[in-house]
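Assemble and predict.
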Amino acid sequence: MTLIPNEARRRRKVTMRDVADRAGVGLATVSRVINGKSGVAADLVERVHEAARDLGYRHDLTASSLRRADRRTGTIALVLEDVANPFSSALHRAVEDTAHAENLLVLTGSSDENPERERELIDTFTLRRVDGLIVIPTGGADTELAAVRRQGTPVVCVDRLVELDQVDTVTVDNRTGARAAVQRLLDLGHRRVAFLGDMASIWTARERYAGYLEGHAGRRVDERLVRREIRSADAAEHAIREILDGDEPPTAVFAAQNLLTIGAVRALQRLGLQDRVALIGFDDFPLADMLSPGVSVVAQDPAEIGLIAARLLLGRIADDDDRPARHVVVPTTYVARGSGEIPPTD
Amino acid sequence: MTLIPNEARRRRKVTMRDVADRAGVGLATVSRVINGKSGVAADLVERVHEAARDLGYRHDLTASSLRRADRRTGTIALVLEDVANPFSSALHRAVEDTAHAENLLVLTGSSDENPERERELIDTFTLRRVDGLIVIPTGGADTELAAVRRQGTPVVCVDRLVELDQVDTVTVDNRTGARAAVQRLLDLGHRRVAFLGDMASIWTARERYAGYLEGHAGRRVDERLVRREIRSADAAEHAIREILDGDEPPTAVFAAQNLLTIGAVRALQRLGLQDRVALIGFDDFPLADMLSPGVSVVAQDPAEIGLIAARLLLGRIADDDDRPARHVVVPTTYVARGSGEIPPTD
DNA sequence: CGAGGTTTCGGAAACGTTTCCGGGAAACGT
DNA sequence: ACGTTTCCCGGAAACGTTTCCGAAACCTCG
């Protein structure tokens, strides 16, 4: 068997110089042809392409971006909460698609909601000179984001609001969506609506909680029905069981994040209460419609968010980075599937 | 408001030369210090670090990897079917985690099962000189993979078997898993088991179909119950409805891919047959346990697959690329949740 | 037909780093 | 004390490309 590395080592990399020699032209001309610049005689263009093909020449983007005036690397970076989370990966996909249309590649990393890790990712990405950065900010690395921005790299923040100079943001109207959901439940006659929320350090968690409160429109909310700082489906399940065990249990639940919604569903199903306690979740999730009852949700459109974010970033990369920050707010839609339409049982 | 780009443009990038001048040492010494090489006097190391800190020096990985002997870029690439697909993204996450431990970054792309796109991705990745490649091969770009391999970049293929020199693969024992599932159904007394499969161009689809046939152990399979080349949940739903409409409908369904399983669930629920027709799916999916009945599946472990693939790749990158291809086969496990345990109704 | 302008091309410098190499100082052995 | 080895260090070359600049060739027009 032939050992590839040896073979590869033997045969030196074919460079523009080689192409130039074989085509009988200057190095500069080869560069012009490869980059598709105008102002080269047609026959030379042909000769260069032919030589390149014969030699199996491959353009080296590393060397290219080192010398190039704009120093572009053709790469953007995406800092997600977790690439395996459905919201993140739908966003990722949308970004990839728009980036691909511009021949850009996407580097990704998961911060796991950890500011330290976010900082680390931002750092390694910028060392690699990415052309732009899309981040779901944990909130704890804003200084670094500002630094990156100052250093010249365009930045777009998604999902969470961040107030930084010349950093665009794309968010969802969390507060309105949450408020409307809670109002629906109250309109149905529910008076005791439990709340399940993520860490208060996360902007969306705070907004959705605010919406929950606003939805009550002056009505008192029982503190015992509120559980915040819940980080997983298991924790959510546990919390719901605890709340339902109390002496004045809720007749409805508002779960402010998709994992928490799933935990709530699990708890209700285990207790056989899925048809008696109403449930509305924030953020849609796959198969929510197939459960019984179907889970009503305040849906966001991660693909739309990703698309807008990518467009904003590409705009800044392409030309006009000299414009103030823009905040885009994407609306949410309520999807009625049954669980949110259950009337109160007393 | 200060316009960042101007500011950034004004102040030239601080380079190793600047650090060297400020520390009063040679350029080579700065390089040695930054790269943590031994053989530099302690006080010089200190001076260099101090100067670098004062000047806000940032190491340029692009320039570094251009000159560096091993030409490593600290980046690996991952070609998935679709980053938004749960199987792909779980794999992605596992790869990211192991890569991160070695300080490697991950570039990703979605081939959408399209060989053309796979080729394109492989091409752009290698132009960027990634240190290694992990691919879910469509099967139509094997020549390109071999070329990449010959050019010296380590390659690991996942999920689908590929026979290439010095290309490791990590697959699942599709055939055994499918066969066992079908046998379970037959043992339960089912005689008419429908089959739903993906495109035959995909290795896993062929293997699972083979397993389905083998599971019948000589018993005749009714061609009318077999549907292959199904590409989406909708198509699967349609196919199942069609089959159940026939004069001799199946009493059980084996769906050979997660999207198809979901389509089958949808069809059965719509027809109100979810408790009468047995169903086993290949590949687990989120919330399969929450449906009623719970969906029994032949589960694979995408995280395990990703972990192994990443380890194989890192091994080749690190040192011994001079070893023959290694094929790792990860076992599947059957997860009984109810839908696969429904006895035949005649 | 010649002056002036435009186009096309190649040599050489530059991008920011790593690595090669050679020189000087220190350490060692005799 | 002197030759030899070892150790640090800095200058310069190199990585593969893009861009600057000047030379040559080609037009255009009075």
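Chain B touches chain A through 62 residues (CB under 8 Å).
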